[in-house]
Amino acid sequence: MTILRLKCPVFNRLRHPHRKLNCLESRICLKNAEKNRLLTHGCTAPESENGYYLETLNPQLNTLGNNMPVRIAIPEPTTTDAAYNARSLPPYLSALESAGAVPLVIPAQERQDEVARMLTEAQGILLPGSGFDVNPESYGEARSPECGPQDPGRTAIDELLLQDAFNLHKPILAICHGAQTLNVWRNGSLMQDLETVLKTPVNHRPGRDVVNAHPIHIASGSRLAAIAHATSKEIEGIVVDYCNSSHHQAIARIGDNLRVTAVSPQDQVIEAVELDSPDHFVMGVQWHPERTLTVSPLSLAIFAAFVRAVEAWRPRNLETSVARA
Q1: Do residues 81 and 108 touch, judged by C-beta distance below 8 A?
Q2: Is 25 a catalytic residue?
């Protein structure tokens, strides 16, 4: 496998696939101001003066053909919190790579026309978590005091990615904040604060290091149940597993053509949704499978199934899409 790796102080895990290498050089320089754009194919310097270059781990392969891994677009988690991005983005990238895909990171401050251009090179979409909340005005509610601040820049990118993916039936995996955004984009709503609305005894944010925060019951006949079949226990006809947890909001009214596929059994908080469509992989999970790849067979299975769906994807026969606008 060839992985295209950006070496730089901030984006040292950024991946940017490109259509073709015209040479067999292992390093490709990028300008600091345009670190996400391929500028030259033949640099022999060990590093550009600004510290950015792409490194191909397999210098014998110089074209992106049918044997190359699929590319999955993922936005930076936030537009303003660099520390959060640096901490939270790498596990998503590692999870995609472990499943055989190449992440295509969408910079948080990127112009929308450039995002649309980048989407023409992506076959799937991953919406990650975020340290911000979804704007309650987008689902017709006034903001409660417990609702956190919003990130309009991230929301704009998410909506563009969702529109493109639904237009072209690209597979989608949405995680935590991403799952909430998916639900709201499909005309659903959220509980703005679990403790205030439900007064639930379940701790839905016990900390990043807690692997098994609470059990989940997975709906039979769902795509998630099929993925979990080989990894999870079945007790009295119910597929049961455990998940980590890191959220204070949750899905309330389910979005159009989405179905609930997992709940927290003690308080019935929705933990997973998916599109009610056999031919379009769209899955949202409230937990963070990217954090538990080494200890959770279900986490591995989710990413593996997602990447398989991306590999099987073929463009729809449409005249227009957001990516071509």
Answers
A1: no
A2: no
Mean per-residue pLDDT pooled into runs of 10, the chain (325 residues): 35 34 26 30 31 30 57 97 96 97 95 95 97 95 95 96 97 97 98 88 78 88 94 86 90 98 93 96 96 94 97 77 48
For 76-145, give the DSSP string.
-S-SS-HHHHHHHHHHHHHHHHHTT-EEEEE-TT--HHHHHHHHTT-SEEEE---SSPPPGGGGT-PPPT
Strands 71-75 and 124-127: parallel
Contacts of range 316-319, beta carbons closer than 8 Å, 24 or more positions apart:
316/167, 316/168, 316/169, 318/167, 318/168
The whole-angstrom separation of Cα 183 and Cα 177 is 10
176 is catalytic: yes
CB burial of residue 237 (10 Å; 0-12, 13-18, 19+): exposed
Q: Which helix (H) or strand (E) holds 274?
A: strand 269-275
Does the active-site annotation cover 214? no
Unique residue bearing structure tokens 């016990």: 206
| Residue 258 near residue 186, CB atoms below 8 Å | yes
Q: What is the pTM of this model?
A: 0.78
pLDDT given for residue 167 in this prediction:
96
C-alpha separations of 257 from 88, 220, 325 in Å: 30, 17, 26
Which of the following is catalytic: 29, 176, 204, 280?
A: 176
The pLDDT assigned to 211 comes to: 79
CA distances from 113 to 15, 118, 227, 269, 324 (A): 20, 9, 36, 37, 9
